[in-house]
């Protein structure tokens, strides 16, 4: 990801701010489904779609333009997708690492609202993490990484088989992997929100034990088999303890009964 400043008027539209972020993604190593997501072909993605993301909620990051080009720094490197996007001040991960408290702000409510809108519009995110929730310079919040979002069909969505290991629910590791990805439902995003909420409310602590993502992921898988426990931080207030515990139910069927719209009505 790069930062850029526009020095001349945009020749394509009048929506671009002066300061933007530029995301450059090499396309050659990607499977066809991911390549399509970045170029906007076939099914496309939620990010930057004028009839999906911007209409859903202002808490979803905007992509102003996307095009396919070449990386001038590496001769013969193949095509790259270039996305011109909103520029953020920092991610939630960076803020927590810097010791910035986010527990008392509107962040979790905004994320819940935006996710509810995304689901209502018929999309699943599939990779909701502290890295992909962004803090803007004006104090607002955006959810990013929408290029990996996929449309819901028959209650499920086939998302790329990627993600931060310690945000993936127990059932992820039992899912069948096809050429196009893994089939998930809204319960996947609900689980990720529970992890995100715990980390935001505790200054970065994860509800499963481990000093790195792989060990926390292993604890999540044991938890799914009834062989490990969550460790909700004692300092989390009672309303949030119940919300996080519901989001982190090991049984995906129980979790599937929860919606972001319902969660929003429970937020303190």
CATH superfamily of the largest domain: Transferase(Phosphotransferase) domain 1
Please give the largest β-sheet: 4 strands, antiparallel
Please state the CA-atom Rg, rounded to the nearest Å: 19 Å
The CATH first-level class of the largest domain comes to Mainly Alpha
Number of domains: 2
Any key phrases for this structure?
9 helices, alpha+beta, single chain, 268 residues, Transferase(Phosphotransferase), domain 1, 2 domains
Model description:
The protein is α+β, with helices and mostly antiparallel strands. It has 2 domains: 2-86; 90-266, Transferase(Phosphotransferase) domain 1 (Transferase(Phosphotransferase), domain 1), CATH 1.10.510. Helices cover 31% and strands 18% of the residues. The chain has 9 helices and 12 strands. The protein has helices at residues 32-39, 53-56, 92-97, 107-120, 186-201, 213-224, 238-247, 252-256, 260-266, and strands at 2-5, 19-26, 63-70, 79-86, 90-91, 123-124, 133-135, 141-143, 150-151, 157-159, 177-178, 181-184. It has a 4-stranded antiparallel beta sheet, with helices on one face. The chain has a 3-stranded antiparallel beta sheet with strand order 5-7-8. Helix 4 runs antiparallel to helix 9 (260-266) and helix 5 runs antiparallel to helix 7. The longest helix is centred in the C-terminal third of the chain and has 16 residues, at 186-201. It is globular, with a radius of gyration of 19 Å. 40% of the residues are buried.
